[in-house]
Structure formats: C-alpha cells, structure tokens
From TrEMBL, chain A:
This is Thioredoxin-like protein 4B. Its main location: nucleus. It comes from the Eukaryota. It comes from Rehmannia glutinosa (Chinese foxglove). The lineage of its organism: Eukaryota, Viridiplantae, Streptophyta, Embryophyta, Tracheophyta. Keywords: mRNA processing, mRNA splicing, Nucleus. It holds the Pfam family DIM1. Gene3D superfamilies: Glutaredoxin (3.40.30.10). Belongs to the DIM1 family. It is found in: Nucleus. SMART domains: DIM1 (SM01410).
TrEMBL record, chain B:
Residues 366-382 have a biased composition (Basic and acidic residues). PANTHER family: CENTROSOMAL AT-AC SPLICING FACTOR, COILED-COIL DOMAIN-CONTAINING PROTEIN 84. It comes from Rehmannia glutinosa (Chinese foxglove). It comes from the Eukaryota. Residues 364-408 are annotated as: Disordered. It holds the Pfam family E_motif. This is Pentatricopeptide repeat-containing protein. InterPro entries: CCDC84-like, E_motif, TPR-like_helical_dom_sf.
Length: 151, 408
C-alpha cells in the first residue's frame, strides 16, 4: 500500500504534513504495512481517500522507523493499527465508547464507516470542538483493551 | 411417501399427481389413481382430470369428471362449458344440446369471456398457489408477493358482480352482436384471455371480461380515451360507442386483443401540426405559462440569480468559521506559506523537537501540559534505566513502631 498512499518514515515529513494541512482533517495511520489488520485498514483508506479528499488528507506512518518512535511514545501507540486525527495542527479526539479517545484503534468495517467518522471529525472541528462523538453504532467499533503501566 | 418423508398424502398431493399424469397423456392412469384414492376426491382433483381430458380429447372420462364436478359444485358453469365445447369439437350435437338443456334446467349462468371455473380454479386454487410459491422460491422473488397471484374469494365475487352489471348495461344498449355466434367462440375467447392474463401478470387483468355488445373505444379517432381495464366499463356506459357497434364488434375485439397482447395499453394523443410549430421542451421554447411580453424580464431575472449564486458561493467559501479548531494557527500558517511562495521568508528552521498539539489519554488539565509531561518523562526515562541497574538490597519490612522502638 506504500505506493498508493503517501507513507512517511521520517519525523520531518510527518511534521511538515501536520503543519501544512490547513483546514482539512489529517488522518495518520500508524502501523506496519505487513500486518493483516493494517492491510485491511489501508485498503479502506485507499478506497475512500479520493472521496474525502475535499476535506481530509490521508497518510500512512510506518511504526517501525526509528525517528517515528518519538511519536509512538508521544501518542501512546500500543496497538496496530492506530489512527490519529489532526485538524489545523490540533489533535482531534473522538469518543467512540472505548477507553482511548485520542486515537482510533483497529480497522473500519466498511468504507462508509470511515467516511462517517472523518465527516464527524470535520464537522466538530469546523464548529470549534476538540472532541467529537462517534457516529457509528457500538457493534461496528473495534474493541480493544488498554493495559496499564505505572499508573 | 409416509416412509420417505414422514408425511401423509393429502388431497392436494393427489391433485398434483392426477394433474401431472393427466398432462402427460395417461388419462386412464389418472382415473385409476382417483378411483384408488383413500381420500374423497375434491374439485381440484376432478378439475385436474377434466383439464387433462380436454387437452387430450378424451370425451368419456371428461364426462365422468364433469359430472363429478357438477355434483361437487352445482353452481359452477365451468364443467358444463368445457364438456359442451368438447362435444362441439367432436360434433356430437345432440350431446351438446343436452348439456345446454341441463344448464338451463339447473339455472347455470355462463359468464362471457372467462370461465369462472377456469379462473377461480386455476388462479384461486390450492394447486396454483403451490405452484406459484414453488416458482417464486426457485427463481427468486418476494415470497410475500405470492398473494398477488392468487384471487381471493371476495375479489372474485366482486368481479362477478361487475361482469353482471356490465352485461345488463350492454343488453340495454343496442347490442346487435349475435348471441349464438360467440357460443362457438367460448373456447377461443377463454384461451385468448388466459394467454393475455399470463402475459400481464397482473391481478386486475384477470378480472377483465369482454362483455358482449360493449366495445372498447380505440382512439384512432380524435377523441382522447383511455383503454384501461378499470375505465372500460365507464367508457362503455358513456354511450358514444353505440354507433360504432353494429359491424365493427369483431374488428374492435380483435384490435383490442391484439393491443392487450402487447405490454401496455397506451393510447396516442393526436399530435397535430399546430403543436409542433409552437415548440416544446426539447426545442428550448419557453413554457406556455410565460407571456411573450414577460419573456425578457424572465431572462434578466434568471441571469441575475445566477450571478448572485456565484457570488454568494464565493462569499461562503471565503468566510470559514472563525471559531473552528486551530483557526488562529491556520491563519498564521497560511500567511507563512504565502510568504514562502513569494520567496520572502525562507523557513528552514526545522525543529527536531517540535511536537504537535496532543491531548494524552490519562491526563487532567489542559493539553499544553501533555507536551511538558512527555518531555519530562522523556528525560526521566534514561535516568530510570540507570537506576535499575543498581541492585537494591532486599530488606524485610519493619514497621514504624518497631523502628521507633529500636531508635529509642
């Protein structure tokens, strides 16, 4: 999928993308391109990238690169794939009923689900909200469990 | 059947068997089955046999079946009609007359155009229902719509009433159509109608009957009429058809049959040359509700509207919500990018330590703190690694009191 969606391996690239995407939602997928679930998510992202291109940009970040480890720690990325949303260099949170609101863990079941999520984020951002609620019903949201450490 | 499938054969099963065997040509076998049936044969069974006999021209067995049916359903005209037709086909005129006399004696009324027995038996019977269900299941399609292909008793009664009403109306008007002639055409009409109804696949069409003496108006004239089944009756009652009737009944019937064999009964509106001159939608002419004088005003109004739309769209896009997330940052960044494009400001100071605005998972307080926290944790983590290398001596736990006591 690397040749279809822009894949970022350096911190510099990620930074420039975050800073330069203005008035559009930036979707960053953190994951490995060889993982099965990542592949499924990449497939959905690729297919919907064009449809949401007017209000969103999609990019993939390879989690195995060294420079990206800073971001892995900063964003607390433990599950693959994780998707983080940005708008105007501000991080957008989404309440999807899980414990972690800062990112979307897992894949989407349908293209339409992904488009709905991105649309919800865009609408919330345009209204000035930093956190939005998820438009999907709970059965279509991938479930995961957060492990605690040093709390 | 009981051993293989665990179900007891019922009368419907026997009806199906008789039907299949009869259709195949072995009507004697079918009769055999009926005589050996443990259950009393009902009208479906006899009906199946009668149909098979009709197809394979077995008059004797047809008579037996018809008589059984007459006993089962004394008011039905179907068996009489079928038997009559068979006798006519084999030119047994005396027998045919006898049937006629029986009908009059028992006060059986034959409906024009569509035999009650065939209609109701075929389309209201259990067999038909089963067959339709099987077909739908096999070839896909809404099983809930199977009901459409079946005629209920009430609908049938309504149709019969309608037919009777039509007949009386037709009798009032000047019906010259010969009464004797159509008798011989019962069979043909029956067949034609059943063919039509199968084509149309529509419940309404089943209820149609061509009443004698009432002619469907066909508009090769300049009158606009609608040749639809439901409207037919009212149109025919209107009366202008009466002058058409005498010679042209057969012709009209044939026309109508031909038309209905097609898919839709669309009539042509007479398109005169006048309308062509004025122009229509396709030529781009203005619609008739606009006056010619007001046409110019209309154009001006349209153009101004369009320009308004364009300008309003431009206004909308330029005015993004100032309260949106990161608005201030976005404005600043846009300015920076423009400056970079122009080449005035070269921003090459890439900060390796720049981190975007991010709110952490377990965090109370504002987002600014999350970056600070992270930086602190980052610094703290290598020190923590160093410390873990020094082995801590294991000591038992001594309570405070004990320690106090020992120190005292």
């Amino acid at each position: 999928m690397e040749y279809l969606l822009p894949t970022l391996r350096e911190k510099r690239e990620v930074d420039s993308l975050i800073r330069d995407t203005i008035d559009k939602v930036l979707v960053l997928r953190f994951g490995r391109s060889s993982d099965a679930v990542c592949l499924q998510l990449d497939d959905i992202l690729y297919k919907s990238a064009r449809d949401v291109s007017r209000f969103a940009t999609v990019a993939l970040v390879d989690v195995d690169s060294e420079e990206i480890q800073v971001y892995v720690k900063y964003f607390d990325i433990t599950f693959m794939p994780s998707t983080v949303f940005f708008f105007n260099a501000h991080h957008m949170k989404m309440d999807s009923g899980s414990a972690d609101h800062t990112k979307w863990v897992g894949t989407f079941q349908r293209k339409q689900d992904f488009i709905d999520v991105v649309e919800a984020i865009y609408r919330g951002a345009m209204k000035g909200k930093l956190i939005v609620s998820c438009p999907l019903p709970p059965e279509r949201i991938p479930k995961f469990q957060l492990l605690y450490k040093d709390v | 059947m009981i051993c293989d499938f665990g179900i007891e054969p019922r009368v419907e099963h026997f009806a199906s068997i008789v039907d299949v065997v009869g259709r195949y040509g072995q009507v004697e076998e079918a009769m055999d089955i009926i005589s050996r049936m443990p259950i009393e044969p009902d009208k479906a069974v006899w009906g199946a046999l009668l149909g098979a006999c009709r197809v394979h021209n077995n008059v004797e067995l047809a008579r037996v079946a018809a008589e059984a049916l007459m006993r089962l359903e004394p008011e039905s005209s179907g068996p009489y009609v079928l038997l009559y037709n068979m006798y006519v086909d084999v030119e047994r005129w005396s027998d045919a007359d006898q049937i006629r006399i029986m009908m009059d004696k028992n006060d059986i009324k034959k409906e024009r155009g569509y035999s009650r027995w065939q209609c109701h038996q075929t389309f209201g019977g259990v067999e038909h229902w089963k067959r339709v269900k099987g077909f739908m299941w096999k070839y896909g399609g809404g099983m809930d719509r199977v009901d459409l292909f079946r005629i209920a008793e009430e609908d049938f009664a309504k149709w019969e009433k309608k037919c009777k009403a039509l007949k009386t109306e037709g009798a009032k008007a000047e019906s010259v159509g010969p009464v004797v002639g159509p008798w011989k055409n019962i069979h043909n009409e029956l067949n034609a109608d059943s063919v039509n109804s199968f084509c149309k696949n529509d419940v309404d069409s089943f209820k149609f009957c061509i009443p004698n003496g009432v002619v469907p108006l066909h508009s090769y004239t300049n009158e606009k009429t609608q040749v639809s089944c439901s409207v037919l009756s009212s149109v025919s009652e209107a009366g202008p058809s009466s002058h058409n009737m005498p010679g042209s009944i057969q012709a009209q019937d044939a026309q109508y049959l031909r038309n209905s064999a097609g898919l839709m009964n669309l009539t042509q509106t007479c398109s005169t040359s006048k309308e062509d001159i004025i122009g229509n939608v396709h030529t781009g002419a203005p619609p008739p509700w606009f006056d010619a004088t007001k046409g110019n005003q209309l154009d001006v109004a349209l153009k101004s509207e369009q320009s308004d739309l364009v300008s309003s769209k431009a206004r909308k896009s330029s005015k993004l919500n100032p309260k949106r997330v990161g608005a201030a940052w976005a404005e600043r960044r846009k300015l920076e990018l423009e400056l970079e494009k122009r080449g005035e400001l070269v921003n090459n100071n890439y900060d390796a330590n720049w981190l975007p605005n991010f709110g952490r998972v377990w965090q109370s307080g504002t987002r600014k703190e999350s970056r600070k926290e992270f930086r602190m944790e980052d610094k703290a983590s290598p020190k923590a690694d160093n410390q873990s290398e020094v082995l801590m001596p294991l000591q038992p736990y001594i309570s405070k009191r004990m320690r106090r006591d020992t120190s005292e």
